[in-house]
Specification:
By secondary structure, this protein is of the alpha+beta class. It has one domain. It has 7 helices and 7 strands, in the order ααββαββαβββααα. Strands 1, 2, 3, 4, 5, 6 and 7 form a 7-stranded mixed β-sheet that branches. Helix 1 packs across helix 5 and helix 1 runs parallel beside helix 7. The longest helix has 43 residues.
Length: 229
């Protein structure tokens, strides 16, 4: 009986800890959604260093990855978690699908920094690609550093032929940046934690089916409606 009790106790402690761990995870995801809305609003308020409104209005999807950590010591890399929202046929923005962004590099480098990224998806094909799981920028879809500037001229004076345009903000500086070779994929664990359901499918999130949407989602949607209408 003693041995049975000693075996049960750790399992019981782990079981009791699960709700707390789940709540903590959900809190982390909520903070990420809130941070994504803040990043978009902050960048779009920079007078002449914002994503061109003309580019945003034509977007099929927008991914915002706040606080991507980049480290380097000869071999470097960066990794971050964010959200992707998809524009519906009616022009409304979807609930956020959680995603990750990762890349590696080789060269003489040292140090660490945190960078915010925004990716603008210009085609339905590029959005559908990431929704299926894992996606490599520049390989599965053409990607390029995006133009900046509030004027329509900034978006129309160059040939916007890429499927995805990427931007970064680091140390207060905002600019288009190339993310060729970076991998982006759906973050299933975060989706499950945020929407409170196991095996949550990205398509169900986007379509608003069988998922309970936290109230904090509205702030992100309103930011997208304001700047990407």
């Amino acid at each position: 009986m003693k041995r049975f009790g000693s075996a049960i106790l750790p399992a019981l402690v782990l079981f009791l800890a699960l709700p707390a761990a789940s709540a903590q995870a959900a809190g982390d995801e909520a903070a990420r959604v809130d941070s994504a809305a803040e990043v978009l609003a902050t960048i779009m308020e920079i007078p002449e260093k914002a994503v061109p409104p003309a580019l945003l209005s034509d977007a099929k999807g927008i991914a915002i990855i706040p606080g991507v950590i980049k480290v380097g010591l000869v071999v470097g890399g960066q990794y971050g978690k964010g959200v992707l929202s998809v524009k519906g046929k009616d022009g409304a923005w979807s609930n956020p699908v959680f995603v990750t962004l990762a890349s590696g590099s080789v060269g003489w480098q040292i140090g660490a920094e945190s960078t915010d990224f925004i990716l603008v998806f210009k085609t339905a094909r590029s959005v559908e690609g990431i929704m299926k799981g894992k996606y490599t920028l520049g390989a599965d879809a053409s990607a390029a550093a995006g133009p900046v500037g509030r004027s329509v001229k900034a978006a129309t004076d160059i040939e916007l032929k890429a499927e995805i345009y990427s931007y970064s903000r680091s140390r207060g500086l905002f600019a288009g940046v190339s993310l060729d070779g970076s991998s982006m994929q759906v973050d299933g664990e975060s989706n499950d934690a945020y929407y409170g359901k196991k095996n949550t499918r990205p398509s169900d999130i986007v379509e608003g089916k069988t998922v309970t949407v936290p109230a904090g989602t509205e702030r992100l949607k309103k930011a997208l409606e304001t700047y990407a209408r």
